[in-house]
Amino acid sequence: MITFNWLEVIGWLGSLQVVIAYGLNSYQKLKSDSYGFLLLNLFGGLFLIAYTFYKDAYASMFLNIVWVIIALPALIKLMRKI
Question: First-to-last CA distance in the chain?
Fold first, then answer.
């Protein structure tokens, strides 16, 4: 029997968000200073923090905390330009 776990879904969504942001940026479909790129990375990182905490994967959790620390100030800076 397969059990459903929301944190597994959150982990997959976080991974997809980070990969989509990277892929779209690599093919110049999304600029690295755009809201879409920064929000995908921010929420992808937050989702992965929750997932890696759940899995006790603290090295990966640290990486995702740094990912969020990079994305959040960049997003704030972009919002101040308006």
Answer: 51
Copy the structure tokens of residue 56: 């006790």
Is 81 within a domain?
Answer: no
39's enclosing H/E stretch is: helix 35-54
What is the domain count for the chain? 1
Cα 71 to Cα 28: distance, rounded to the nearest angstrom? 18
Query: For residue 79, is it within any domain?
Result: no
Question: Residue 48's pLDDT band (boundaries 50, 70, 90)?
Answer: very high
- pTM of the full predicted structure? 0.91
Two tokens, residue 9: 């879904």
CB 5 within 8 A of CB 27: no
Gap between the Cα atoms of 6 and 55, Å rounded: 13
